[in-house]
Design a protein that fits this description.
single chain; 174 residues; mainly alpha; 12 helices; 0% strand
């Protein structure tokens, strides 16, 4: 079945679908768009959903996505977040994460999927909050990371997906 990609995106221009849209439909639409749109456009849309005042805070959404991710995805998320933190912040991380990083503090961390599975979503929320404070560009990098994992992004919630779709539509229009 062929998709009317332009028509689908047109529905979301200006945020028209964001209010009162059927959550399942928004998820399905996002899945279709993520398969056909350039990854950069999808990443930008997700990053804009992170920035929106109509969605939960960035750190909360990242924590939610982390909780829904596979072991591989969790490791990728954490490594992206940790890469934006200063050595001082890396060294001060409490809980299980500080021990997992051990001697790696001050270097680019590379947690394995097994190590990432030892971290809980609340810790990831704290890391994401610190990363956002230190490096506002982290939202763009996380958006790009999630653009490569559109099935995971579908778990972020229909309001955030509708915002992402609106931003993808705007970007594709230009």
């Amino acid at each position: 079945m062929a998709i009317d990609f332009g028509g689908l995106l047109q529905q979301y221009l200006g945020g028209a679908q964001s209010a009162g849209a059927n959550p399942g439909q928004v998820e399905d639409d996002f899945h279709q768009v993520a398969q056909h749109a350039p990854q950069a456009a999808v990443g930008n849309g997700v990053a804009e959903a992170f920035r929106s005042d109509q969605t939960p805070p960035f750190s909360q959404m990242v924590g939610q996505l982390f909780g829904n991710g596979s072991s591989q995805q969790r490791a990728g998320m954490l490594n992206e977040l940790l890469g934006s933190l200063s050595p001082a912040i890396l060294g001060s991380l409490g809980g299980g994460l500080g021990g997992l990083l051990g001697a790696r503090a001050g270097t680019a961390p590379a947690l394995t999927p097994e190590q990432a599975d030892q971290i809980d979503p609340q810790q990831v929320e704290q890391i994401a909050q610190q990363a956002q404070q230190q490096d506002p560009g982290i939202m763009d990098r996380m958006g790009n990371f999630y653009a490569a994992h559109p099935t995971l992004v579908r778990t972020i919630g229909s309001a955030a997906l509708a915002i992402a779709m609106s931003k993808i539509a705007e970007r594709m229009k230009t």
